Amino acid sequence: MGRFLGVVGGLVAGFAAGTEVWGRAAALARLMVIRRRKFTWASFYGAMLETARTSAMILFIVIGATAFTGVFNITGGLRATQEIIRNLDMAPWLLIAMMMFIVFILGAFLDWTGIVLLSFPIFLPIVQEMDVSLLWFVVLMSVVLQTSFLTPPFGYALFYLRAIAPREVK
User: How many Cβ atoms are within 10 Å of 72's Cβ, its own excluded?
Assistant: First the structure.
């Protein structure tokens, strides 16, 4: 419990930023492995390699989504899509439900960073025009974005669950 409070306590209390907290968590995890005498340079190297692969994958997704959004915006696609949505003449709650459904479907095919970079530039200006709280909207979208953690091909939650499940669980 002390380790948990040492890591998360600084974040909750406002003494440390997210990056500092996760750096502290990584250092504590390494110390725990060393203390249990399970540390090997081969496993450390493997962990570093896997971290680099995952970071590179996420960075390529961000770069691709940013490039797509830039080209989409320059060619007028962003404005055209927003106009189509505005011309639907729907009640605000129905329009938000439609946006949530779109994000839900995208969650089955894209990583959450790609979804945010692709859909939020389209949705946020429309939500602002509807005089809906952006905080409320983003909280709703973050709940729907959880689907991207549960569905392949990026189902990170599936990888986490598989890593901790007993071997007999298929």
Answer: 17
